Amino acid sequence: MTTATFDLAADVPKRSSAAGIAVVLLLPIALVNAIGFILPVLNLARMSFNEALPGGGIAETLTAANWTGLLQDRFYLDLIVNSVAVSLGITLATLLASYPIALYLHRASGAWRTFLTVLVISPLLTSAVVRTYGWIALLAEQGPVANVIAAMGFQPPRMMFNTTGVVIGLTEILMPYMILSLMAGFGRLDPKVEEAARTLGATPFRTFWRVILPLTLPGIALGCLLCFVLAISSFITPKLMGGGRVFLLATEIYDQAIVTLNWPLAATLSMLVLIIFGAALAVYSRVLRMIDQG
Amino acid sequence: MMHQTIKGSGVAAVKDPYLCLEGINKKYGLIEVISNLNLEVRKGELIALLGPSGCGKTTTLRMIAGLITPTAGRIAVGGRDVTRIAPHGRDMGLVFQSYALFPHMTVARNVAFGLEMRGLSRAEIGAKVTRALGMVQLEHLAGRKPRELSGGQQQRVALARALVIEPSILLLDEPLSNLDAKLRDEMRTQIRDIQQQLGITTVFVTHDQVEALSMCDRIVVMKGGLIEQVGTPHEIYEHPATPFVASFVGRTNRIKGVRNADGSIGIGSSLIRSASSVKPGDVMVMVRPHRIRIDWSGTERQGETANRIAASLSRITFVGDVIQYHFDVDGSEFIVEESTIKSQAGHHPGKQAVLSWAVEDTFVFGADQ
């Protein structure tokens, strides 16, 4: 702008050109998404209605056999229920472990807060594979955790190559995401409001239950959505820590696609995961609406 | 700086005190924010803690509420030592500057909160909430959420929420500073009326001298963690104990002078008198701008009781209801305020005049104060 005065007529083309620039700037990412995400998903959706041929072939016929077969097969129904249940359990464990940390971080200030935040995020700098191997070393039959439990006079439980191991590993791996989401959702939590509750006669416990918890629900909802989605789609940790004995959707998709070479079935299972994502999102937006009104 | 706890003539100790602060001290690390604070408040009294930001007034209020524990000292309410009691056991109603309403609850639920914590029955709570909301004229908004209310309405809800529990002491932390000027005047009257009606002991923190002067029974002027003066609004305004009180409460001219051995005070080449007793040497003379009269002809003789000083007009500022004349007296600036009238005679910079004011309106403080 060279002059301070401008009339409406001059403003209109300027605004439409701003919109034009926005379109131009958004085009690359839209293209990348269309080619890299939407097209493959559509392709997967189509493939889930194709017929698998022995030896890894795909018949270009249109059939709903994969879907009907899936929903009639006891093994797959159990797999779906089990995957959702384990992911929900991991989400809950992550929430319980992360909430106090996030609350403390929210209340911290200055350099101490920055330092702690970096500390919370730092595990993300290490690949999940490395962290999973770390957990394998810790939780192995003769590992430090088992030794400590044995030293206290208890029989150490099996913590590796079963669901317990997968839950422990994924909980730790997902904690940074949960903590960051919780903190992002703690915006409404004003320390003055807690003080108001205290002066009105609320004990610390009742202050938490009646004021802090309700005000942090948006953060809880966001963190749970994110961690559930990450848990149900995680592959490396269940694969390594489950030792082939824990069957979850992601590991089964891998087995069908790479081991059995039944791509149509793998595609069907993948679409199923997407449907579960959609359901999780629907629940999330429903919960947010309830928080907003309630 | 004189570091006395009470510098002023006011009374910090009263008969039958209800709220007592004894030797209160608060340190954050090495920084002392409150030093040996002693204060007694009568039952039913509205007392203001007045001072600039950082003077320790809010810290004092938060210590009374139990949100901060004093490093040393004792706080008692009605003879009961509450120094170590958690805020939820203290039975105090606190109103925050930022309102601090529970955003997820309706107005009625906000007001009901304190009663629910006390385990009252549903019927009792309903009746008390209705009465409290009636007191602040907000019954019609009981079902609304705080975010749907204006700032003034939110502050009234906060007041109702603090009052409904019938607290032993009502604590107000700058309750009016987030409101616009007109609303602030209304709320001032409303708070004072409710306080008088309920006869509730109230501590009011403010940095606004007008609020303190117009609403409160007594004022505690604080600066740098110390009490400068305690007294009624009249005492504080007419008999400021320190130069800080004189300039913080009301407006005042500050002129450098010299006190002579005979008790007269020299300003430039003129001599004035004062009722204040200070040591000979450099002094600070303070006179309120509206207590000075201007004699444009320079001939009018006043009684022996008045101070008279020749001055030359340097600047005029028109503020609407008052007009400010800036005078030069041998390099010192005197500001004189007069109420405006429509047919005001025009004066021009450079004009000579004689300024006069009563001897008792002359505050003199030692230069070291």
UniProtKB/TrEMBL annotation, chain A:
<keyword id="KW-0812">Transmembrane</keyword>
<dbReference type="InterPro" id="IPR000515">
    <property type="entry name" value="MetI-like"/>
</dbReference>
<dbReference type="GO" id="GO:0005886">
    <property type="term" value="C:plasma membrane"/>
</dbReference>
<keyword id="KW-0472">Membrane</keyword>
<feature type="transmembrane region" description="Helical">
    <location>
        <begin position="115"/>
        <end position="140"/>
    </location>
</feature>
<feature type="transmembrane region" description="Helical">
    <location>
        <begin position="79"/>
        <end position="103"/>
    </location>
</feature>
<keyword id="KW-1133">Transmembrane helix</keyword>
<dbReference type="Pfam" id="PF00528">
    <property type="entry name" value="BPD_transp_1"/>
</dbReference>
<dbReference type="InterPro" id="IPR035906">
    <property type="entry name" value="MetI-like_sf"/>
</dbReference>
<feature type="domain" description="ABC transmembrane type-1">
    <location>
        <begin position="80"/>
        <end position="284"/>
    </location>
</feature>
<feature type="transmembrane region" description="Helical">
    <location>
        <begin position="207"/>
        <end position="236"/>
    </location>
</feature>
<comment type="similarity">
    <text>Belongs to the binding-protein-dependent transport system permease family. CysTW subfamily.</text>
</comment>
<keyword id="KW-0813">Transport</keyword>
<dbReference type="GO" id="GO:0055085">
    <property type="term" value="P:transmembrane transport"/>
</dbReference>
<feature type="transmembrane region" description="Helical">
    <location>
        <begin position="160"/>
        <end position="186"/>
    </location>
</feature>
<feature type="transmembrane region" description="Helical">
    <location>
        <begin position="21"/>
        <end position="42"/>
    </location>
</feature>
<keyword id="KW-1003">Cell membrane</keyword>
<feature type="transmembrane region" description="Helical">
    <location>
        <begin position="263"/>
        <end position="284"/>
    </location>
</feature>
<protein>
    <submittedName>
        <fullName>Polyamine ABC transporter permease</fullName>
    </submittedName>
</protein>
TrEMBL record, chain B:
<protein>
    <submittedName>
        <fullName>Spermidine/putrescine ABC transporter ATP-binding protein</fullName>
    </submittedName>
</protein>
<dbReference type="Pfam" id="PF00005">
    <property type="entry name" value="ABC_tran"/>
</dbReference>
<dbReference type="InterPro" id="IPR017871">
    <property type="entry name" value="ABC_transporter-like_CS"/>
</dbReference>
<dbReference type="InterPro" id="IPR027417">
    <property type="entry name" value="P-loop_NTPase"/>
</dbReference>
<dbReference type="InterPro" id="IPR050093">
    <property type="entry name" value="ABC_SmlMolc_Importer"/>
</dbReference>
<feature type="domain" description="ABC transporter">
    <location>
        <begin position="19"/>
        <end position="249"/>
    </location>
</feature>
<dbReference type="GO" id="GO:0005524">
    <property type="term" value="F:ATP binding"/>
</dbReference>
<keyword id="KW-0067">ATP-binding</keyword>
<dbReference type="Pfam" id="PF08402">
    <property type="entry name" value="TOBE_2"/>
</dbReference>
<dbReference type="InterPro" id="IPR003439">
    <property type="entry name" value="ABC_transporter-like_ATP-bd"/>
</dbReference>
<dbReference type="GO" id="GO:0140359">
    <property type="term" value="F:ABC-type transporter activity"/>
</dbReference>
<dbReference type="InterPro" id="IPR013611">
    <property type="entry name" value="Transp-assoc_OB_typ2"/>
</dbReference>
<dbReference type="GO" id="GO:0016887">
    <property type="term" value="F:ATP hydrolysis activity"/>
</dbReference>
<keyword id="KW-0813">Transport</keyword>
<keyword id="KW-0547">Nucleotide-binding</keyword>
<comment type="similarity">
    <text>Belongs to the ABC transporter superfamily.</text>
</comment>
<dbReference type="InterPro" id="IPR003593">
    <property type="entry name" value="AAA+_ATPase"/>
</dbReference>
<dbReference type="GO" id="GO:0043190">
    <property type="term" value="C:ATP-binding cassette (ABC) transporter complex"/>
</dbReference>
<dbReference type="InterPro" id="IPR008995">
    <property type="entry name" value="Mo/tungstate-bd_C_term_dom"/>
</dbReference>
